[in-house]
Design a protein that fits this description.
126 residues, mainly beta, nine-stranded mixed β-sheet, 2 helices, 49% strand
Length: 126
């Protein structure tokens, strides 16, 4: 099985800044392989999640007040846009890296260009 790659969505207003910081679309994606999900947003965020750890996947309609990489106590928002956010609940949690610092990841909220396709793929594999 080849990997399925999903682009992280970006607001046009944010693109100049993230391109300068090296966290734009060229360096960011969600890559779904047979056994794992790799999430990268430039040097700002990276995680490898075993697919078996994904307990739930759903649209995330909670308000979003910022773009970039933000989190606390295991819940991380990785987004370039306020739209198309997918929520993944993980059990057990995994280690992720934010700006090179290890963090715990139990809930990932991530903006993607095609959220319905990502959710459908992850649900089929469970």
């Amino acid at each position: 099985m080849s990997d399925n790659v999903f682009g992280i969505s970006y607001s046009p207003a944010l693109l100049p800044l993230v391109l300068l910081l090296g966290m734009g679309p060229k360096h960011s994606c969600v890559r779904v392989g047979q056994d794992s999900i790799s999430v990268t947003m430039g040097y700002g965020f990276r995680a490898t999640i075993p697919r078996q750890n994904v307990r739930a996947v759903m649209p995330d309609t909670a308000s979003v007040g910022a773009w970039g990489v933000h989190g606390w106590r295991g819940t991380w928002l990785v987004n370039g846009s306020s739209a198309g956010i997918v929520r993944m609940e993980l059990e057990p949690g995994v280690r992720a890296w934010v700006m090179g610092v290890p963090v715990r990841l139990t809930t990932l909220r991530i903006s993607v260009n095609t959220p319905d396709e990502l959710m459908s793929l992850l649900r089929r594999s469970r």
